[in-house]
Amino acid sequence: AIDPRQFARLVNDKDGVAYHGDAELHEMLVALKYRPELASALFRLLAEPQSRRLGICELYLFAKLCGFDGDEESWLEEYLALSAAYGFDPTVGADITCFVRMLGDDHGSAYRTDVELHALLLEASANADVGPTSIASNDNSRRPSWATGGRRV
């Protein structure tokens, strides 16, 4: 048996026979039906690093990846509805437990199958390489008023 560090070295060694890229590893997780790791990986890509939470901007990124095309006002309503439905403080954001519940609630707007989670993870990974181009950006001039304390900067 190998430990996780050895496994990581094997699959990350580009010159080795066991090398697998992120896309291949994600496909393996889907095939193994390892939903918790898919959800966790997506959360880590989206979450605000210091708080390890998905606030209004981070969940907006998730919603956009899922096809949300509403305006600022409709997103604020949706965000507040999500916080009420899944029991997180909207001023703090959703933790990993809430996010996993959202993804697994087949009656909720955030529900995603394993295959959809895989696709979102690939898209979010690609977007992370390019850098933020949405309201979660540090460029406050491009953020909605609700993301900057009610004012555009």
Number of helices: 7
Low-confidence stretches: 130-153
**Nearest-integer average pLDDT:** 80
SSE string, helices as H and strands as E:
HHHHHHH
Task: Tell me the structural class.
Answer: mainly alpha
Question: How far is the N terminus from the C terminus?
Answer: 55 Å
Strand content: under 5%
Q: Outline the biggest β-sheet.
A: none
Rg over CA atoms: 17 Å
Residue share in helices? 40-55%
The count of strands amounts to 0
- The 3D shape can be described as elongated
What would you say this structure looks like, in words?
This protein is mainly α and 153 residues long. Helices cover 54% and strands 0% of the residues. It has helices at residues 4-12, 22-31, 35-46, 56-65, 72-86, 96-104, 114-130.
Short descriptors:
single chain, 153 residues, mainly alpha, 7 helices, 0% strand, disordered C terminus
In short:
The protein is an all-alpha fold.
Helix and strand topology:
Layout: H1 4-12, H2 22-31, H3 35-46, H4 56-65, H5 72-86, H6 96-104, H7 114-130
Helix pairs in contact: 2-7, 3-6, 3-7
